[in-house]
Every structure is written in C-alpha cells, then in structure tokens.
C-alpha cells in the first residue's frame, strides 16, 4: 500500500473529483433510475481512474486487489443482512404482518402527529436494538406504508424514520458504530454516550420542531378515505393483533444481543409459518392450485422469500404496498455496495484516503479547526470510501494524537466522529448505508435527503459547540 507521503494531494483528489463529475452526469441523464445499475458502473470507472493514479506511483495490481478484497470482506455481514431483510419483507407481507401494522397504524396515527411520532418511535426502537438497519427493516417499512396510505410523501416519512433511527443508533450501547467510535478515540463507552447527549439531544429537538412545522403543511385533502382503505386491506388479508408477536420476537432477540443474521432468519421463518396459519386462502390463491399441498405451500413461501411477490388489490395505493422484491430485490443494492467497495479499496491502496485526511489535519491550527477537520474528514470518507465504518476508523486513527496534543479528552473525538461519520453515511446514495436504507424503505436517497433533518443538522451542531467552546472537555494534567 502506498504511503500518503508518496502521493500528492492533487493526485489523491483527482479520482474523487472524476467520480463526482461522472456521477453528476449520470444522475442528470438517468435521474432516479441511476441507482438501477449505471451508478454502479460509474463507481467501477472511478476505481479505474484511481488505479491509473496508483500505477503511476508503482502500486501493483495485486496490492490494489488485496485492498479491495479486505473492503469486501468487511461488508460480507452487511450483504447477508441485506438478503435476509429482503426475505423477511417477503414473508412479513405474505403473512399479513406488514398489512396488520398498516391497518392499526392508520387508525391510531393522525396525520398531524404522524411524522413526529415516527421520529420518536424509531428512536426508541433503535436505542433498544442498537441498529438503525433493523429499525428500517421492521417498523420503518410499516411506517412508510402507513404514511403513503395517509397521502404523506414517502420522502418525508423516510426522513422521519432515519432521523429517529440514527438518534437511537448513536445513543445505544448496543450499537456497533457507538462502540467502534469510542474504541477508535480511546474513550470509555458510557462516557462517550453521556458526552453525546450535549449535541445529540438539541439536534433531536430541532428535528422534532421541523417535523412538527412540516406536519402543518400537510393538506387534509391529500388524505385517502381511511374507511375504504381499511376495508380493502381486510378483503385481502386476515388482520389480527397476534401477528404483532413476530416483529416483537425479532426486536426482543436483538435486544438480547442475538446476532442480527440469526434474528432476521428467525423472523423470516416465523413469517413463513404465520402465512400458513393466518393467510391460508391467500397462499392457496398465489399457489395457483386447487387445494393446499406441501408442494404448493413450499413453492409459494420460497417465491415470497426469494423473488418478487405482488398481491392484487383493487386499491391503487395498496397495489404498491402489497409488493415485495424478496431476496432478489436486494441484488441491486448488493451490486452497488460491491462496486463502492472496489472504489474505496483502490483509493485506500494508493494512499489517497490518508492523504486527504492528512491535508484536512494540516488545516487544524485551532481547536475549532481540529473539530472542523474531523467533520470534513468523516464526510469525505463517507463520499469516497462509501462505508461508515471507514469514516469512523480512519479519522479515529488519524486524529487521536492531534486531540491529545491539544489537551482534548478522547470523548471530544469520539463524539465528533459519530456526529459526522455515522449519521451522514445515509445521505450518500453509493454509501453502504444510503444504498441499504434506500432499498429497504423503497425511497431514493434524493427523495428523503432534505427530510433527514437529524442527519445533516448533527455535523453543524457539533461545529457550533466547538465554535463557542461548549462542553469541550480538556484532559487533566494527571490524565495528560
């Protein structure tokens, strides 16, 4: 791997600038369809540009491929989770779990408080599970359906879901990113969490205020006739509150630190069993057989898990809600993640990521400059390395000594990394987090970007605290 000193800053930035330019052209022509495949190829072209720069620096092809392989290895768990989320969404639709959530949610949630409640509910579930990904894959899917049925734009609902999910992801001791940020900065986990309260809670308050204001702009005339909608749901599915036990079991499993892959697999299998129990007529109809048999049930369930599932409804809104892509529906996202990891791996191999971070570090002459450089580095890595874990690990390693030299406690660094690295990952379409949440919720990043208030206010909040020296903890002489 090239050292960052052997590559000039202009050379390190060239592949990034080329990638952004190519993506801009691609999005201009393909618009929302750019994530269907063309952006993936652009990421590979960006990796090729980075490789050409690497060849001029005598970086071998093998070194670059080894770095790409390490990047892909780090995402193997995430790719499997994506496949199982697709499987889970298929069986939860067929079993009636998602329609049941939508059915009761429409009755309980008023449009005037829906977005605010969505933020709060997702925040609580994410704190309990420690995972924004799990929150999106469970309650998030249902909330998007409920919001869509109410006539609320899906981008608004997705923004509220992600705002709450990432608040909980940051504040939960069960979160992998929270533990990773504390470890990289050398901070105690619970000290790190307590210190995040200072910037995270005000950001959440701002988010809730924004969504409360947005709620007033939702026109009642945009709402569907809920009575007719509820009737249409019950014509297709048998609705029973007992189906809530399935998502509840999955949440309990994750709270009890069951590996996410195991919890999602159990949730998928429970959904398949519930399909036979709660929706036998629907299973029979989809099988195309005259009577239920092992073969017809087996094929219907496996199709729901692996390929497209579309359940007919006379209601145009429900027609969209009663559709699932299964595991195959996640393949586009997996393709995007793989191509993003190729670009990030080559950039890391040629020393470009370290060089960009070092350049930001040189700008940090003051305490505020150090915080600003950390924020800029985290966001830059989310854009270039396409993975939030790299946006936590690399700045954590690079800036730890700089914070120590300025007599700043490590929780300053860990908090800043979370405020800028963890939360902004979901705002980048080709980042693993952006690709995941966009795919799971069925909402393009460009649609929810402006509404993911918590995610883009967080970096500004941490810089505001740094600018006015609010809650900037110093090292004691003894600790230093």
Task: Describe the overall structure.
The protein has 480 residues and is mainly alpha-helical. It folds into two domains: 4-73 and 330-467, no CATH class; 77-329, no CATH class. It is built from 24 helices and two strands. It has helices at residues 9-30, 38-56, 61-74, 76-95, 97-108, 111-129, 132-149, 154-171, 176-185, 189-216, 226-236, 245-255, 260-278, 280-287, 294-306, 316-321, 331-349, 352-362, 367-384, 388-405, 410-424, 432-441, 445-448, 453-467; strands at 309-310, 323-324. The protein has a two-stranded antiparallel ribbon with strand order 1-2. Helix 18 (352-362) runs parallel beside helix 20 and helix 19 packs parallel to helix 21. The longest helix has 28 residues, at 189-216. The radius of gyration is 23 Å and the shape is globular. The protein starts with 8 loop residues before the first helix and ends in a 13-residue tail after the last helix. The model has no long low-confidence stretch (mean pLDDT 84).
Residue runs with pLDDT of under 50 for 5 or more positions: none
- What is the overall number of helices? 24
Series of secondary-structure elements, N-terminal to C-terminal = HHHHHHHHHHHHHHHEHEHHHHHHHH
User: Strand percentage, roughly?
Assistant: under 5%
The strand line-up of the biggest sheet is: 1-2
Fraction of residues in H or I helices = over 70%
Our measurement of the CA-to-CA distance between the termini, rounded to an integer number of angstroms, reads 33 Å
What structural class results from the helix and strand content? mainly alpha
Overall pLDDT confidence? 84
Largest sheet: 2 strands, antiparallel
| Overall shape | globular
Radius of gyration: 23 Å
> How many E strands?
2
The structural domain count equals 2
């Amino acid at each position: 791997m090239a050292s960052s000193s052997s590559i000039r800053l202009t050379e390190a930035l060239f592949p990034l600038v080329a990638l952004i330019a190519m993506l801009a052209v691609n999005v201009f022509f393909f618009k929302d369809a750019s994530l269907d495949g063309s952006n993936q190829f652009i990421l590979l072209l960006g990796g090729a540009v980075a490789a050409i720069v690497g060849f001029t620096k005598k970086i071998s092809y093998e070194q670059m491929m080894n770095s790409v392989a390490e990047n892909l290895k780090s995402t193997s768990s995430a790719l499997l989770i994506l496949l199982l989320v697709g499987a889970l969404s298929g069986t939860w639709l067929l079993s009636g779990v998602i329609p049941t959530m939508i059915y009761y949610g429409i009755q309980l949630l008023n449009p005037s408080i829906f977005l605010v409640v969505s933020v709060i509910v997702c925040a609580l579930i994410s704190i309990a599970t420690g995972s924004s990904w799990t929150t999106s894959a469970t309650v998030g899917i249902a909330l998007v359906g409920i919001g869509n049925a109410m006539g609320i734009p899906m981008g608004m609902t997705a923004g509220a879901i992600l705002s709450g999910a990432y608040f909980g992801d940051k504040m939960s001791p069960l979160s992998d990113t929270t533990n990773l940020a504390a470890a990289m900065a050398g901070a105690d986990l619970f000290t790190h969490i307590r210190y995040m309260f200072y910037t995270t809670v005000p950001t959440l308050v701002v988010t809730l205020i924004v969504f409360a204001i947005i709620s007033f702009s939702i026109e009642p005339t945009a709402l569907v006739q809920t009575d007719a909608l509820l009737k249409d749901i019950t014509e297709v599915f048998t609705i029973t509150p007992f189906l809530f036990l399935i998502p509840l079991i999955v949440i309990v499993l994750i709270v009890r630190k069951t590996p996410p892959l195991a919890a999602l697999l159990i949730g998928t299998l429970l959904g398949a069993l519930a399909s036979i129990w709660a929706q036998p007529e629907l299973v029979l109809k989809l099988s195309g057989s005259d009577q239920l048999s092992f073969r017809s049930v087996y094929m219907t369930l496996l199709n729901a898990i692996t390929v497209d599932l579309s359940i007919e409804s006379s209601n145009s809104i429900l027609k969209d809600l009663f559709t699932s892509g299964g595991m195959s529906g996640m393949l586009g996202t997996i393709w995007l993640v793989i191509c993003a990891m190729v670009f990030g791996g080559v950039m890391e191999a040629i020393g470009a990521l370290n060089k960009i971070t070092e350049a930001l570090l040189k700008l940090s002459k003051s305490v505020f400059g150090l915080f600003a450089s950390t924020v800029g580095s985290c966001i830059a890595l989310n854009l270039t390395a396409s993975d939030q874990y790299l946006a936590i690990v690399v700045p954590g390693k690079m800036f730890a000594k700089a914070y120590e030299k300025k007599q700043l406690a490590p929780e300053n660094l860990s908090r800043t990394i979370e405020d800028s690295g963890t939360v902004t990952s979901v705002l980048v379409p080709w980042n693993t987090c952006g690709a995941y949440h966009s795919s799971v919720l069925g909402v393009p990043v460009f649609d929810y970007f402006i509404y993911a208030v918590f995610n883009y206010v967080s970096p500004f909040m941490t810089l505001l605290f740094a600018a006015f020296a609010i809650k900037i903890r110093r090292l004691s002489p003894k600790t230093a």
